């Protein structure tokens, strides 16, 4: 029966129709060209928006790390750090030959192209192809500005494409004179000098407005290879390159042949006093100085805490002491002198900075030995003990560990804490550590500013945790200061006041211990004044030897050792380090730089008598200070170099 609608007649036709007559293609296939065009347009808009937002004045900004002139506390320049850039130039206010020299040698079609010189690129490609390598570039001054201000020195097609895009943008936004001015204000001229104004001063002691044709040609010629063509590096090469610039200027009609001949010989006159780039103190203080001062043009003068006279004395004393004791296999050393508030006045990080820039005063992590016992005894004092408390000075065994006193010498009975500290008894320190606990010792050290990582056992009582000489010195400075922790600093703007006072009773007892160590103990070599306090430190096999102490407001630390950690021949903290400390402190006193309660330390030496109730342990002599050098600030200190045949006055006890 037939369908009145005729649907049966249409079915075969629908079934036999081609597939594309009834199935529509996906949208992305029907509009592929439109989609691609839209994506490209979106990318172009994005690129234009990004480029359009670039800071046009970046080339005119000061450097992020401007030149710092580091100045001592007494007003002497001692180091120059960082790159040098002066204020921007305006090419419209310069003689025509100044800008003309750079255009002639770097981009002779500068005033004709739109940021990218296709003709120059084609010429460079041809010449490089003929030469079989890169011999010539096709970058315009605008492209160089784009690279210097916004990009890196990476050699890649991607960077070149970015450079070209930014160059076209710069041409659209700036006039030719503005582009050239920005270029001249930021381009590198060697010797860490950026910008024409800085270069004019650095090489010729002039302003850009007064540069001669020859001087302009020499500066323009340097841009190609500033490190090689700087007149301070290779004057003949700089002059040869300048003659090429002059010849090009003649060719372009910028100057006459006569002017070129008259300017062939250029005299260099450096406008900045030569200063060392680095020193141990300069390396340490520069980060502080950069944080304290904002970006600026020219050179930023930064007054530091360094005392030039004390620094000179410290360097000479250390160098002489080590040179005179080569027999003892001691090759390196360090000295730090600081005020109780952390103000560093002298720093020697090694025998010779020119030979090794590694700063042993700050960066070396060495065991302090018995110098760390200060914090062990501090923990004991906090636990209720006093310098008169008793502690057994006899052999002790903790598991498999058997700490020993130096040469196996023991009192064999209970002794006062001040005696044990003065004689630097290892077994007494370990017994104290057992009593107060490892945590109390670490807390005391942390309170005083020591940040070292400590071992998980009681060997920490003998100073086995490596730490810097600087942080150890700061811990002793806290005792002298009466507040803690002390943060060392080299510029006044970075001074950090101590957070809380050291309790008076605790401080008085620590002063008691440190004074008796100097008068009757292992540090008696350093007893040059009734105000001298200190402690010795010697590590196993004499790998490190230290003396740290203070007189009034001068805290000084001395370390001796070897970079390869090899043992010295019997150099203990109470020997050569204490003698170096004594000589330096004596010089500081003679120079009237040491004060106690606001008064200069001086006057005749004071005889120190032994209290009747103080037991002198075996091997300790009770010295006097009659006639000892350095006690009077008016008399020069006597050099304290030891005689090789003489043993130290009192041997220090290594920790094991």
What would you say this structure looks like, in words?
It is built from 22 helices and 16 strands. The protein has a 5-stranded antiparallel sheet, with helices on both faces. Strand 13 and strand 14 form a beta hairpin. Helix 6 crosses helix 8, helix 10 packs across helix 12 and helix 15 runs antiparallel to helix 22.
Compute the number of strand runs.
16
User: Could you tell me how far the N terminus lies from the C terminus, measured between alpha carbons in angstroms?
Assistant: 117 Å
Structural class assignment: alpha+beta
Rg over CA atoms, rounded to whole Å, is 37 Å
As laid out across the biggest beta sheet, the strand order is: 7-6-14-13-12
Residue-averaged pLDDT, rounded?
84
Beta fraction of the residues?
Answer: 5-15%
**Large-scale geometry:** elongated
Major sheet attributes: 5 strands, antiparallel
State the helix count. Answer: 22
Instruction: Work out the helicity level.
Output: 25-40%
- Residue windows where pLDDT falls under 50 for at least 5 positions: 1-15, 603-656
Give the SSE map.
Elements: H1 7-15, H2 27-30, H3 32-52, E1 67-71, E2 77-81, E3 84-85, H4 96-106, H5 118-131, H6 141-150, H7 157-173, H8 176-186, E4 193-194, H9 196-204, H10 213-222, H11 226-229, H12 235-252, H13 257-262, H14 280-292, E5 299-303, H15 308-323, E6 332-338, E7 344-348, H16 373-382, E8 390-392, E9 414-416, H17 417-422, H18 426-436, H19 438-447, H20 469-481, E10 483-484, E11 500-501, H21 504-520, E12 532-538, E13 544-551, E14 554-561, H22 576-590, E15 595-596, E16 599-600
Parallel strand pairs: 1-5, 3-4
Antiparallel strand pairs: 1-2, 6-7, 6-14, 8-9, 10-11, 12-13, 13-14, 15-16
């Amino acid at each position: 029966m037939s369908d009145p609608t005729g649907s049966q007649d249409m079915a075969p036709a629908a079934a036999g129709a081609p597939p594309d007559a009834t199935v529509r293609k996906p949208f992305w296939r029907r509009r592929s060209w439109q989609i691609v065009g839209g994506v490209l347009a979106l990318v172009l808009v994005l690129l234009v928006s990004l480029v359009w937002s670039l800071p046009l004045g970046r080339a005119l900004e000061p450097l992020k790390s401007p030149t710092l002139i580091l100045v001592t506390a007494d007003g002497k320049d001692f180091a120059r750090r960082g790159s040098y850039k002066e204020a921007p130039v305006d090419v419209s206010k310069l003689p025509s030959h100044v800008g003309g020299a750079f255009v002639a040698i770097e981009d002779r079609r500068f005033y004709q192209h739109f940021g990218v010189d296709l003709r120059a690129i084609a010429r460079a490609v041809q010449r490089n192809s003929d030469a079989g390598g890169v011999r010539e570039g096709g970058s315009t001054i605008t492209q160089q500005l784009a690279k210097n201000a916004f990009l890196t020195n990476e050699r890649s097609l991607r960077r070149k494409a970015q450079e070209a895009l930014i160059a076209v943008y710069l041409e659209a936004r700036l006039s030719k004179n503005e582009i050239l001015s920005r270029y001249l204000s930021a381009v590198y001229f060697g010797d860490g000098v950026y910008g024409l104004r800085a270069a004019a001063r650095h090489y010729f002691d002039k302003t850009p407005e007064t540069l001669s044709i020859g001087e302009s040609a020499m500066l323009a010629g340097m841009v190609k290879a500033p490190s090689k063509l700087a007149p301070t590096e290779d004057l003949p090469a700089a002059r040869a390159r300048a003659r090429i610039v002059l010849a090009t200027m003649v060719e372009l009609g910028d100057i006459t042949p006569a002017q070129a001949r008259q300017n062939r010989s250029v005299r260099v006159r450096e406008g900045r006093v030569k200063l060392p780039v680095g020193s141990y103190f300069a390396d340490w203080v520069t980060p502080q100085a950069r944080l304290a001062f904002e970006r600026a043009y020219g050179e930023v003068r930064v007054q530091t805490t360094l005392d030039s006279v004390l620094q000179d004395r410290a360097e000479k004393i250390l160098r002489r002491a080590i040179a005179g004791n080569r027999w003892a296999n001691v090759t390196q050393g360090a000295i730090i002198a600081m005020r109780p508030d952390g103000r560093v006045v002298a720093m020697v990080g090694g025998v010779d900075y020119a030979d090794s820039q590694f700063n042993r005063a700050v960066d070396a992590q060495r065991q302090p030995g018995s110098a760390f016992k200060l914090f062990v005894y501090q923990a004991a004092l906090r636990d209720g003990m006093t310098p008169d408390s008793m502690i057994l000075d006899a052999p002790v065994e903790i598991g498999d560990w058997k700490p020993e006193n130096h040469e196996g010498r023991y009192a064999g009975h209970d002794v006062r804490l001040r005696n044990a500290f003065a004689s630097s008894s290892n077994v007494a320190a370990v017994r104290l550590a057992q009593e107060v606990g490892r945590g109390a010792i670490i807390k005391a050290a942390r309170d005083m500013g020591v940040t070292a990582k400590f071992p998980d056992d009681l060997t920490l009582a003998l100073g086995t945790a490596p730490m810097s000489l600087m942080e150890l010195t700061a811990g002793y400075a806290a005792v002298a200061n009466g507040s803690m922790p002390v943060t060392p600093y080299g510029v006044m703007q970075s001074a950090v006041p101590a957070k809380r006072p050291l309790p008076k009773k605790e401080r008085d007892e620590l002063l008691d211990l440190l004074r008796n160590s100097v008068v009757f103990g292992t540090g008696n070599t350093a007893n040059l004044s009734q105000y001298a306090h200190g402690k010795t430190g010697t590590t196993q096999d004499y790998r490190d030897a230290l003396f740290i102490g203070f007189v009034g407001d001068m805290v000084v630390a001395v370390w001796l050792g070897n970079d390869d950690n090899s043992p010295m021949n019997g150099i203990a903290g109470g020997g050569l380090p204490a003698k170096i400390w004594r000589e330096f402190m004596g010089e500081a006193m003679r120079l009237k730089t040491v004060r106690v309660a606001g008064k200069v330390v001086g006057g005749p030496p004071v005889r120190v008598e032994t209290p009747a109730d103080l037991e002198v342990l075996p091997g300790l002599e009770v010295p006097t200070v009659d006639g000892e050098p350095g006690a009077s600030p008016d008399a020069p200190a006597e050099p304290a170099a030891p005689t090789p045949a003489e043993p130290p006055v009192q041997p220090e006890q290594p920790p094991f």
